[in-house]
Design brief:
Blueprint (H helix, E strand, L loop, with lengths): L2 H7 L10 E4 L4 E4 L7 E6 L10 H19 L3 E6 L17 H9 L3 H18 L15 H13 L3 E4 L2 E4 L1 H7 L10 H7 L16 E5 L15 E3 L3 H11 L3 E7 L3 H16 L4 E7 L2 E3 L2 E2 L10 H6 L11 H9 L7 E3 L1 H21 L15 H16 L4 H19 L7 H18 L24 H24 L3 H13 L2 E6 L2 E6 L2
Zinc ion binds next to loops.
Length: 526
């Protein structure tokens, strides 16, 4: 979308002005200002591919998809990098033995890379179902070992790391003499040292708090690469620093991820970047809050761990029914990304109803017949202007998606008034209302009427980047409307065979057709 068409949509002047985002580093909302005018570099920590994505993975994916969509909508050219962690990492530096991917490979009798590929494909399927746009670059950690070794060398050369029995550790005490370790999480070194006191002996490390930059592989460790220090593998914080720098530069705009990554992962990323290049790498750190299940933290050991595909099929004892990918997306967007979200069947059922109400509103717009002249009972252009402005204001206020949704519900109320013939609207106001609704519901919030299932088909894979969501929604909707018009013609001609055939085939595809006095309406029950 070019800037001139945006200026019409964004009457505050300066389409890119006024976006506030909460920076975890400064603990306040800041006016977003990119390093290079008109461009944004954004890095988000991606999945470790040794298991299926769960609800906790959907949250950062949807949060940063919302940001990606909005930045593009307001006219930025965005490079969005999200990594795939396919290098086996140990749970903690203190762990010995197998990494997670190798362990899974042994249990399933597969090559480690077969495991990584399998779960990468499944992650992509889930992302597509949730209508998350693919990132611009999706680098694999295993494909960037050279860059990670280079990073470790630079940190060693600058004196902030040491070698010990083939492994390399980051020297936190040394780093903290010159810089401040703990800026992002608000900890100081003493807190970190005290918190780690109960752990096992120091072993290879000078200090228990030091973290691995490179680990010498144990004999049973399958995933290993040669390095100047040993055959081994990079420490788990290295890949994001090395790949962020490679694709976005020594300084870039936004780094995102879940709040659980603030410490130690992102704290260590900051330390690695500063220790290697002498200055910060990221301007805005953004973190989404966590998803809890019935008030509890989600975890495999707690038995409340529900994968996204289980949500989509309903195949889990904690689920009362299946929930469509769009219900999950809507559920997540109904909360501000910095608030916690608690899953329960009741909350998801409410989200399902809410989404349906919104989509009914959208379809209702298509059934409104405009009047030629505005009367006393007409919906005014001022209403649409104010609706649009409130939606932009909400998005500019640190992506307040719940406010956008409540404004769209207000639009649904107006649409129903028009459908009930309690108010009138002229064609230009109706067109503006339709444009505003579809821009926010489909292009920015990334919702779709088709519940996400249709997006799982092969043919959809490549079309999503270039095509706007609202255009796609409109095309799908029009195709169904066209069939219903054919059916209306057949009925008028008393051609019951054709009329029934259209109805039955649409029903078989999952559409529910209702005949009303104003003609037939449809919903998709898939
Ligand atoms: Zn990361």
């Amino acid at each position: 979308m070019n800037a001139s068409s945006n200026e019409v949509l964004h009457p505050t002047g300066g389409v890119r002005e006024g976006l506030l985002i909460y920076n975890t580093l400064s603990r306040q909302k800041e006016l977003f200002k990119p390093l290079v005018e008109g461009r944004v570099g954004m890095y988000v920590c991606g999945p470790t591919v040794y298991g299926d994505a769960h609800l906790g993975h959907a949250r950062p994916a949807i949060t940063f998809d919302l940001l990606f969509r909005y930045l593009q909508h307001i006219g930025y050219k965005v490079r969005y990098v999200r990594n795939i962690t396919d290098v086996g990492h140990l749970e903690h530096d203190a762990d010995e033995g197998e990494d997670k991917i190798a362990k899974k490979a042994r249990l399933e009798q597969l090559e480690p890379m077969e495991v990584a590929q399998y779960y990468t494909n499944r992650f992509h399927d889930a992302m597509r179902a949730l209508n998350c746009l693919p990132p611009s670059i999706e680098p694999h950690a295993s494909g960037h070992i050279i860059e990670q070794i280079q990073l470790v060398k630079e940190i060693l050369d600058n004196g902030f790391a040491y070698e010990s029995q083939g492994s390399v550790y980051f020297d936190i005490e040394k780093y903290n003499e010159k810089y401040h370790y703990g800026r992002l999480s608000g900890r100081n070194l003493d807190d970190v040292i005290n918190a780690s006191r109960e752990l096992d002996g120091v072993g290879e490390k000078r200090n228990q708090v030091d973290f691995a930059l490179w680990k010498a592989a144990q004999p049973e460790h399958i995933m290993r690469w040669p390095s100047p220090w040993s055959d081994g593998f990079p420490g788990w914080h290295c890949e994001c620093t090395a790949m962020g720098r490679k694709y976005l530069g020594e300084r870039f705009d936004i780094h995102g991820g879940g709040m659980d990554l603030v410490f130690p992962h992102h704290e260590c990323e900051i330390a690695q970047a500063v220790a290697s290049q002498g200055h910060d790498i990221v301007n805005y750190w953004m973190h989404n809050n966590m998803v809890t299940i019935n008030g509890q933290k989600m975890g495999k050991s707690l038995g409340n761990f529900i994968t996204l595909s289980q949500f989509f099929t309903g195949d889990h004892e904690a689920l009362k029914q299946a929930y469509s990918p769009m219900t999950i997306r809507f559920f997540i967007l109904q909360a501000h990304y910095r608030s916690t979200v608690d899953f329960s069947n009741e909350a998801l059922q409410a989200a399902e109803k809410g989404l349906q109400r919104l989509m009914e509103g959208w379809k209702g717009i298509g059934r409104i017949t405009p009047v030629a002249n505005a009367g006393a009972d007409s919906i005014k252009m001022e209403y649409v202007d104010s609706l649009r402005q409130k939606c932009y204001d909400a998005m500019n206020d640190d992506l307040a998606s719940p406010t956008v949704i409540s404004e769209l519900f207000d639009a649904c109320r107006v649409i129903n008034t028009l459908l009930d013939h309690k108010a009138t609207v002229t064609a230009d106001v109706l067109a503006a209302l339709k444009e505003t609704f579809s821009t926010f519901a489909f292009d920015i919030l990334g919702l779709t009427m088709f519940n996400g299932h249709v997006l799982l088909s092969e043919g959809e894979k490549c079309s999503m980047v270039n095509e706007s969501s609202s255009a796609r929604e409109e095309a799908f909707g029009k195709a169904v409307d066209m069939l219903l018009e054919q059916r209306a013609v057949a009925k008028a001609n008393k051609d019951w065979a054709t009329s029934d055939k259209i109805r039955n085939e649409l029903t078989a595809l999952g559409f529910e057709i209702k005949d009303t006095k104003d003609g037939a309406t449809w919903t998709l029950n898939k």
